[in-house]
Amino acid sequence: LSPGAKMGCFTFIKVMMILFNLAIFLSGGTLLGVGIWVKVDGESFVDIFGTLSSSVLQVVNVSYVLIVIGSILLVIGFLGCYGAQKESKCLLMMFFSVVLIIFIAEVAVAVVALVYTGLAETLLSALVTPVLKEKYGVDAAFTQIWNTTMTKVHCCGLNNYTDFNDSVWYETHKLYPSQCSPALAYPHLCGCLLQGCFDQILEEIRTNAGVAGGVAAGIAALEIAAMAVSMYLYCRLDEK
């Protein structure tokens, strides 16, 4: 290619890099804002999105998930957008490094989830169960999210009803949540106790594995493309 064509190609890719990362930055700001809204006024959020109770996000504190993801997207968007606009090799390399770390972490999580499902369940249980014992019945938004999940998914606790043993809720009320009570009070009617939400949600994920895999593949492709473009701009700056 002629020098003019190379410069035109560089400018086009630079503009696309700026616009793409500007969109990421704005998306991150939106998620961060929604996360803060959920943290401050979780009940109204649940009233609006309560029908999404089968979502994995309802097993954990949604506000923290949104705040963390939003903050990460803000950082990535800023580094990519400002780095491309200022043609800063330092910011472009930081952008590449952050996206690479996230990509590696996603691959590691996917491998653990696919190959070591039991280990993933153990880790999730170790993280979520103590929070469930501590916050259920204390944090209104957290309690509402769990109540919606257990009602819609027909489950009890993360693993089963024993997750509520020694919890603040059980110590205060001396009974299990109402979503678990029918099965515990009349086990002969259903033949078994309610399953934990983890098993139910895992089954939901397996049912929609194709959609989840397609979304994951799309995100991975975007991350690889973003890293390739940032490296292209980084290397082309040496030729300018």
Automatic annotation (TrEMBL):
The chain crosses the membrane at residues 12-38, 58-79, 91-116, 211-235. It is a multi-pass membrane protein. The keyword Disulfide bond applies. It comes from the Eukaryota. Keywords: Disulfide bond, Glycoprotein, Lysosome, Membrane, Transmembrane, Transmembrane helix. It is found in: Lysosome membrane; Membrane. SUPFAM superfamilies: Tetraspanin. Its main location: membrane. Pfam families: Tetraspanin. Gene3D superfamilies: Tetraspanin (1.10.1450.10). Structural component of specialized membrane microdomains known as tetraspanin-enriched microdomains (TERMs), which act as platforms for receptor clustering and signaling. Participates thereby in diverse biological functions such as cell signal transduction, adhesion, migration and protein trafficking. Regulates neuronal differentiation in response to NGF by facilitating NGF-mediated activation of NTRK1/TRKA receptor tyrosine kinase and subsequent downstream signaling pathways. Plays a role in the inhibition of TNFalpha-induced apoptosis. Belongs to the tetraspanin (TM4SF) family. Interacts with SLC19A2. Interacts with NTRK1/TRKA. This is Tetraspanin. The gene is Tspan1.
